Amino acid sequence: MRMIYWKINTILILVVLSLSALGQYKEGKIIYERRTNLYKTLGPRAKDWVEEKNKIKKEVFELTFTDTASFYQLQPTDIADPMPWGTNKNTVYRNLATTRFYSIRDMWGQGVHIEDEMPKRDWKITESKRVIAGFECRKAFWQVDDSTRIYAWYCDEIIPEIGPERFNGLPGAILGIASEDGGTVYFATKIDFYQPKPEQLEIKRSKKVQDLKETREQIETTMSKSPWMKMNIEHYFIW
User: Which CATH architecture has domain 26-238?
Assistant: First the structure.
């Protein structure tokens, strides 16, 4: 009799595990809309050249992923960008079996190739939840410094630890990211689950590659020449 009960319990456990696995997704594509308030990200002087009606800049990015790799990039469009200088359009590739990333960072219209370790962030997970693109997400936050906090909403039904830009480190895919002041906000608008082709997860590498330390030195040298640009150095490296 004990053997029968043991077999029944084993079968029930296997059924529960199977049903749980069916509710988790490992590959597909996430579409994000990024909304940038240029008055907040570029500083007070942005009002000198950006009209009130154009202060919110909208852009669309896509994150293609499997349980082994992810590729984040600006979504191709034929629509001309009237203010391409206003925001960064970074491309990020990750081999999820490692702790490194490869990125093509937009620096004043130039694509700089960077390879380095993924940033380590001390996320605090809360009990707050919201629905994004049809999926229930839990809220977390990262205290960057005494005055800066980044909020994230992740979905544990999509199991790779991925997100827009270089954001990761939560138990599931990040479907929303926002700075506390609302200056930069990313939210998923559409999610498709399918098996991506290998070429969708490839990035064209350069022979000239640098790390984040070298990149920061270049940016600080350039930005330090202008008081209003200097205030944006930390913001640049958050994302």
Answer: Clam (2.50)
